[in-house]
Design brief:
- The protein starts with a strand and ends with a strand.
- The longest helix has 10 residues.
- Helix 1 packs across helix 2.
- A hairpin with an 8-residue loop joins strand 27 and strand 28.
- It has about 700 residues and is mainly beta.
- It contains six helices and 37 strands.
Length: about 700
């Protein structure tokens, strides 16, 4: 039996409504109501309002994206999910291949993912060595996303420089509607159909969601086909015990257009690189995921036990044909409890994680996209042992201090079956955290904290291509101390989220490209500094413009990246190549009352392009893009939406690889990915 604070949860849900979509919200007074009885919710998947409230009690720069903001929007990639999130740099390369970076994580990584742990329902999507991509995250199946920069992801066991992003899929108990159908299409041969269905049958609940997407691509040789399926089944054994099973299947067929010189990226952006065409370069993935979360409510807290296994097959013709077949598995117990210490409220999280995987890694000569002679045959094994704890002590109802730590031991082992050689390395670490949270009002917070992070190299870092063969390089772990301070709050008609951070790094994992068709070489830098500002704010400029309950809202997102070497023997105090210093996004939204429709012009502005080399001699261009989003509800549960992008057809660089010195003799500067040109997408959503 439990007492449920319905009034508090309802008020939290009202406050969480995005300003650009909700109608006018005046002061609402509700009578106190306490219901005693069995909670109708889920132990394994709490309500979205409860998850948001728990996240925002964290004394750190954490952010929450409610999936309702995507209901009437075109969201083809994770950039569309995270575009309005401060501190998150996310840019498309082609298809659903992205650059995802927080606070300089993977700043020089020109392919896939580095330094951020991507989670789906709290379970890692990354492989056991820390590498990963984004293909199994279906934007149409995201109910919410929780962003934890840096050491703020400690309650999940993550302690990398970038932190973690948890993409939460809906359950039958958290879905906004029981059944949903979506159909979308637009320029460059883009089409997607997706659906979701769910049911609650007593103690059982089940949900299944799937999508099929196709795009010819803006550039030559960039056609893509995606099939994504996610499902979960929950069963409540008793008032105190619930288990939930997750299953997913993901098929990706993505042609690669390759990178271009700056001149071609701006002058002939739709062409593909010659090597991409001659090698029929592509990335094809077949993956299956199974996971379970079992939750037990104890007299002294709550125990969650996660277990998962993921199978991934990769066929990846690039400079060679990368042919891999891997299995990743893990188990992660976590206990959370609230109790009193000396009459003060105290929240404690204690957990551990065993996370391992093995990958058969073969490489062949590439003959127009087909295997043509074996050149490498290896086995990659990664094992991680992690234990963590975080304690939050409320000195006063409005003031808390947080202390935590993570202990880790990560083992990497590579066996070369052709030569018989075996290489291995073990990384140990202790990453502490200390923070403070002041909450003068329920919707206003001020926080500060200091954390230590450690990034362990993945196999892409350790196995570098020399003479067309993988060579083991003993890369060290990247370590950093990060200090952050900030404030966030929401009031009627306006809100803000502001964080300043500074990371002092040793051995930062940076990369440089020798040949654009070959994965870049990784090295440990000396002393470096990553610092910046993460800001998001919104304000209602007007209400009752055309009808009672409507509003006009201005929303601004600004991320400032100031990443530099410190007295480096070769690069002095130069900026680290890879990311632009300023990224701004401005949205002006007219929202009709009761969610009946909206109209939103959007500006994306990069005042200075990113440096492409550490010598700071070559950089991408500055740009300003103009877009327009609109949606209208045409009948109960039926909406139509429009997304028009880059209306001026601006030519710009969306992402790039990094070089040592672009002016050095023999330097190949074809490291730029051109951004998409003008495009228009239409869609409809039917919920019932």
């Amino acid at each position: 039996m439990s007492a449920i604070p319905w009034r508090a949860l309802l008020l939290a849900g009202i406050a969480a409504l995005p300003a650009s979509r909700a109608g006018a919200q005046g002061t609402t007074t509700l009578p106190d109501l306490v219901v005693t009885g069995r909670s109708p919710g889920s132990l394994t998947a709490p309500s979205i309002a409860a998850q948001r409230e728990a996240l925002e009690r964290t004394p750190a720069a954490v952010r929450f994206v409610d999936g309702r903001e995507l209901d009437n929007r075109y969201a083809f990639t994770l950039r569309d999910v995270l575009a309005d999130t401060p501190g998150v740099f996310v840019q498309n390369r082609y298809g659903q291949e992205l650059r995802l970076s927080m606070r300089g994580s993977g700043i020089a990584r020109g392919f896939h993912l580095r330094g951020i742990e991507v989670l789906q329902d709290g379970v890692p999507v990354n492989l056991a060595d820390g590498s990963g991509d984004f293909y199994q995250i279906d934007p149409t199946a995201v109910r919410a996303a929780a962003v934890y920069p840096g050491g703020n992801a400690l309650p999940f066991g993550s302690s990398t420089l970038g932190g973690a992003i948890n993409f939460i899929t809906p359950t039958a108990r958290t879905a906004t509607e029981q059944h949903i159908l979506r159909a979308e299409g637009g320029t460059f041969g883009t089409a997607r159909i997706s659906g979701q269905t769910s049911a609650v049958l007593g103690d059982w609940d089940a949900l299944a969601a799937g999508s099929v997407a196709h795009a010819d691509g803006w550039r030559q040789h960039s056609r893509s086909q995606y099939e994504q399926f996610n499902a979960n089944l929950g069963y409540r054994l008793s008032d105190r015990i619930e288990t939930r099973f997750y299953a997913g299947a993901y098929i990706v067929r993505q042609q690669l257009p390759g990178s271009l010189s700056l001149g071609d990226a701006l002058g002939r952006p739709r062409i593909a690189a010659a090597a991409a065409l001659s090698g029929n370069q592509a990335r094809n993935v077949w993956a299956e995921r199974f996971a379970n979360r079992t939750t037990v409510q104890l007299d002294t807290g709550q125990l969650d036990l996660d277990a998962w296994v993921t199978h991934k097959r990769l066929y990846h013709p690039i400079f060679q044909v990368i042919d891999q077949d891997g299995l990743t598995w893990g188990v992660a117990p976590r206990w959370t409890g609230r109790f009193s210490v000396g009459g003060l409220d105290n929240d404690l999280v204690v957990g551990g994680r065993y996370f391992a995987g093995t990958n058969d890694a073969l490489q062949y000569n590439n003959l127009r996209g087909s295997r043509n002679g074996l050149v490498a045959n290896g086995v990659q094994r990664a094992t991680n042992y992690q234990a963590f704890a975080e304690n939050r002590l409320w000195l006063r109802p409005t003031l808390a201090i947080v202390a935590g730590a993570k202990v880790l031991r990560d083992e990497r082992d590579y066996e070369n079956r052709l030569s018989g050689q075996r290489n291995s390395r073990t990384y140990d670490g202790l990453n502490p955290k200390l923070g403070v949270l002041w909450q003068p009002r329920p919707a206003v917070q001020v926080f500060a904290n200091v954390t230590r992070s450690q990034d362990v190299p993945d196999f892409s870092d350790q196995l570098q291509t020399v003479n067309n063969r993988p060579l083991w390089v003993p890369i060290q772990a990247q370590r950093a101390w990060t200090v952050e301070a900030g404030t966030r709050g929401r009031q009627d008609g306006y809100g803000w989220d502001l964080t300043l951070f500074r990371s002092n790094l040793r051995g930062q994992l940076l990369q440089f490209t020798v040949d654009p068709s070959i994965p870049a070489n990784t090295f440990n830098a000396g002393n470096t500094v990553n610092q910046g500002v993460e800001f998001a704010g919104h304000v209602d400029l007007a209400r009752g413009v055309a009808a009672a309950g409507d509003r006009v809202t201005l929303r601004q997102v600004w991320t400032w990246n100031d990443f530099r070497f410190r007295g480096d023997r070769q690069y002095g105090d130069n900026r680290i190549a890879g990311l632009p210093p300023h990224v701004l996004r401005t949205t002006l939204t007219y929202a009709a009352p009761e969610g009946r429709g909206f109209l939103a012009p959007v500006l994306d502005w990069v005042p200075q392009g990113a440096w492409a080399d550490y010598a700071n001699t070559l950089r991408a261009n500055a740009y300003l893009k103009v877009g327009l989003e609109a949606g209208i509800t045409v009948a109960p549960g039926v909406s139509v939406f429009l997304d028009a992008r880059n209306l001026t057809n601006k030519r710009y660089v969306s992402d790039l690889g990094t070089l040592q010195n672009a002016r050095a003799a023999g330097a190949n500067t074809a490291v730029f990915y051109p951004g998409d040109g003008r495009s228009v997408y239409l869609g409809t959503r039917i919920a019932f």
